[in-house]
Design a protein that fits this description.
homodimer, Arc Repressor Mutant, subunit A, Chorismate lyase, 2 domains, 6-stranded antiparallel sheet, two-stranded antiparallel ribbon, DNA-binding
Chain lengths: ~240, ~240
DNA sequence: TATAATTGTCTACATCATTATACAAATTTG
DNA sequence: CAAATTTGTATAATGATGTAGACAATTATA
């Protein structure tokens, strides 16, 4: 029951406790709007000082997960995650229909650059070929839910950055280049701690986790058109794999 | 280039640096058997004192990721992540063929219990129906790479725990119940910090991240037979989504 | 209205993390 | 062999984290 804490690991006790409380909420041990056990009880359960528990709670209050009220207690706020579908026909805006009323994709930056080995392999080009890089952020109800870096063959998709800026949609932009349909060829999934850039772009707190997908989109006849790496904040998004 | 570090986050600088070095190795910035940049250079790159870098390196040496030699340098040991395929026909041992010479699944615990709401919905049973729970750990070359909790209808699969203990394989166990083939119906993916149980079972350090899949396996005619939650250590495993 | 329960604030101190220097020990290089 | 490079060790100072105890402020309860 009392999930134990580890010392001297580079992770402070208050952060370990905050993570465990987050997990308890996700698993349903603490329901939405319910009161957390009092600080003294939590301190005893975890075998630490009350102030250490308070540090953990303070961090979660800062994150908007908990609300503390003097004299009453500490309460759980809503924390339901979006479910983002991934399958052969993954599209950003369609995927979140019904889960968020307002959703959009914002172009943060674009550039033309030589392809790295990884990008060149993904797109089936020679290393160093000219590619267009698009940096975008997906938002649902005003909150960032994804952060993507996408690469396109610059020779074939000249001006896709302008189209992206105008339409705010990869699907719509590709249509201008005569691509009415595209499929996801491969997806590799991993997870890591958010780096400084992720924290800023996705509005996360240090220590947050991001889910990372690396994917190749192809035309129906198998020609690679986009290589993309997308970061999702794990606390706000889960990925639902659709059986095609 | 210099991925910046965050202070006052409850995660010590040396652990953040250790995580980034691990990531650099996984991404291929530091090849296997190659020398890391000297401690002084790393300290400058991260904007910290040399001793802080040394703490990070010491932790990775302890984990068997690096080897330090006085007067020569610090070297990368083998540390490639396993790529675990996920698709319609996900099988543990088959999936890792060619990536690890020795792989097996160990039954840690089994029990008969009433189905929770979540499990009942997944298996298409009434809540509270009797189900068999199997706790297993997947290992590749002696190192834990997965930790699964699986549920089966107790009425239909009486004795599957014994079969699992004997064969060490879900596929082989299901064959004894006349199920020669099964498909993955749905998979939901998320990520979180490992809890105390994960840390112990998967031999991880606090602060480690686990990828979590929640899946339902069905017979070819669509009858649910298994509901499972599997945790993968993100530092050792990536998931490769196979287009059906 | 008094009492209990709970969160908020304060002070003092111990331990861990980080910085700053200096030098030793082992290895490679010229 | 001498010099340069690199990891290993030691010491001291400072800031962040964790412990301990006391009391204030707010809310619920008898």
């Amino acid at each position: 029951m009392a999930s134990s804490l580890e010392r001297r690991t580079g992770i402070s006790l208050w952060r370990q406790i905050a993570d465990q409380i987050l997990h308890s909420i996700a698993v349903g041990d603490f329901a939405e709007n319910a009161a957390l056990p009092p600080e003294v009880a939590l301190a005893e359960r975890y075998g630490v000082n009350r102030h250490t528990v308070r540090s953990a709670i303070a961090a979660l209050v800062q994150d908007g997960v908990l609300r503390a009220e003097q004299g009453r207690g500490t309460f759980v706020l809503s924390r339901k995650r979006l479910s983002y579908p991934i399958g052969a026909r993954t599209r950003f805006s369609e995927g979140l229909q019904g889960q968020a009323s307002e959703r959009r994709s914002v172009l943060l930056e674009s550039a033309v650059e030589p392809a790295s080995r990884r990008v060149a392999e993904g797109l089936g080009l020679a290393k160093g070929s000219s590619v267009i890089r698009l940096e975008t952020r997906g938002e649902a109800d005003g909150q960032p839910v994804s952060r993507a870096t996408g690469w396109f063959d610059a020779a074939r998709f000249t001006g896709i950055d302008a189209a992206m800026a105008e339409t705010g949609s990869v699907t719509a932009s590709l249509e201008r280049f005569g691509i009415g349909d595209y499929l996801r060829q491969s997806t590799v999934l991993s997870a890591r701690h958010a780096d400084a850039a992720d924290l800023a772009d996705l509005d996360l707190q240090p220590g947050a986790i991001v889910l990372v997908t690396v994917a190749v989109n192809v035309t129906p006849d198998g020609q690679p058109i986009q290589f993309a790496e997308t970061r999702f904040p794990a606390e706000r998004v889960e990925l639902k794999l659709s059986p095609l």
